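Quick log. Single chain, no ligands specified.
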Amino acid sequence: MISVSGIRGIVGTGLTPLVASRYAAFFSAYLPDGPIVLGRDSRPTGPALHHAVTGALMAMGREVLELGVVPTPTVQLQVEYRHAAGGIAIAASHNPIEWNALKLIGPSGRFLTGAEGQSYLALAAGPGPDFPGWNRQGRVVPIADPIGLHLDLILGLSVVDVP
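-> predicted structure:
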């Protein structure tokens, strides 16, 4: 299922590594310059989709800020905190175990708006994106303790009474 909020499907039928890599490459082409944050949930299909998405983003010349297994809001927070171009959370939330998704996050750290999603989907409906040459490949940068940062920022809010 393709919607403005992302790409969802049953892994192996509607959502395959090939589908995930294609939509990740188009998302890279849609976003402004800069790194892309990537995190996933603990579903058993996450590692394969994660590798497909990482490969596509690197092939598009992107620096991939790798969070590992984290909640979706942590991906969103890291996009905003690191002033990244955007982010992808590989997570299917409340859906059954056979499902997974690419949740697309814009530069603000929020999911794409309806208009942004429509613009991205129009781009993704076209011919494949242009990949840079062999000498402009991206890289993966592991981010240490992304959940710790998330907790520190929440506990540092004036409205939170820690004691």
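The radius of gyration is 15 Å.
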